[in-house]
Structure formats: structure tokens, C-alpha cells
Automatic annotation (TrEMBL):
InterPro entries: Tscrpt_reg_Rrf2 (IPR000944), WH-like_DNA-bd_sf (IPR036388), WH_DNA-bd_sf (IPR036390). It comes from Streptomyces silvisoli. The lineage of its organism: Bacteria, Bacillati, Actinomycetota, Actinomycetes, Kitasatosporales. Pfam families: Rrf2. Its cofactor is [2Fe-2S] cluster. The keyword Nucleotidyltransferase does not apply. Signal peptide: none annotated. Keywords: DNA-binding. This is Rrf2 family transcriptional regulator.
């Protein structure tokens, strides 16, 4: 299983915001630059994180991005499920449908593996991810243009 680029970026943005200076929060553009991604992609991801209650974004002077309490302490497994959406790893019912779909064991084996993947992420939080040595590296990413 491979996470989408948007999910990967969302997790990296959340991690960067977890170590950001709360008195001087970064903007979406600054975070995009620090992560070396296009601003438009970062803006879409930030909007999605806002809708999920993970990021708070304020406009104007003194504005910027901050990680909410839920974003900091919520389950990483839940966040990845929300970002990736629920669904099977393989598309047995896609067009054309797989001829093995009624008697195949692969689908259930892959579902069990996916469930185990999320179960491994469930006890982890974004706050856990920014412990040393990761936090200091994140703090070293330049934010001011």
C-alpha cells in the first residue's frame, strides 16, 4: 500500500506545524516552500486539513497556520483513514470486474493487511512523530522567504 502524495504532504505539514513557533505561525506559502511543493498543492492540502479539524488557518496580519489540539493529539490512523478514504486496496468491482471476485481470497488477505496497517498507526499521534530526532530537523526547515 502506498499513500497518496496529498496524504504524505498532509502528514508532513502537520508535523511541521507541530514544531512551529505559535507566536509567529507560518503561512501556507512558507510551509509549501519549506516542503518544496507547489503552493497550489499545499493550499489544497491545508484546506482539507482545516475541514478535518487538524489545522487552523487565520488570514491577514498576524495570521498563519497552526495545528489544533485534535491535530496534535489525535490518532494518526484516524487521520490517514480520513485522508485516504475507506476502500479496498484492489478494485475487484471496477470495470471490468475481476472474474475471480466471487471466489478469491486475495481481497480478504489485502483487507486484513490494510486493517493491520491502520491498527499500527492508531496509537501514534503527530506529537509522537516530532520527537527527537525528527523535531529538530523539522525546526531547521526554513520558513521565512
Amino acid at each position: 500500500m502506498r499513500l497518496t502524495k496529498s496524504t504524505d504532504l498532509a502528514l508532513r505539514i502537520a508535523m511541521r506545524l507541530a514544531v512551529a513557533d505559535r507566536k509567529n505561525p507560518p503561512t501556507t506559502r512558507e510551509v509549501a516552500d519549506a516542503m518544496s511543493v507547489p503552493y497550489t498543492h499545499a493550499a489544497k492540502v491545508v484546506t482539507r486539513l482545516q475541514h478535518l479539524g487538524v489545522v487552523d488557518a487565520r488570514r491577514g496580519r498576524g495570521g498563519g497556520l497552526s495545528l489544533t489540539h485534535t491535530g496534535r493529539t489525535g490518532s494518526l490512523g484516524r487521520l490517514v483513514r480520513e485522508l485516504e478514504g475507506v476502500g479496498d486496496v484492489v478494485g475487484c468491482e471496477d470495470e471490468p470486474p475481476c472474474p475471480l471476485r466471487t471466489a478469491c481470497r486475495l481481497r480478504s488477505a489485502l483487507r486484513a493487511a490494510q486493517d493491520a496497517f491502520y491498527a499500527a498507526l492508531d496509537p501514534i499521534t503527530v506529537q509522537d512523530l516530532v520527537a527527537s530526532p525528527t523535531g529538530p530537523v523539522l525546526m531547521g526547515l526554513p520558513l521565512r522567504s
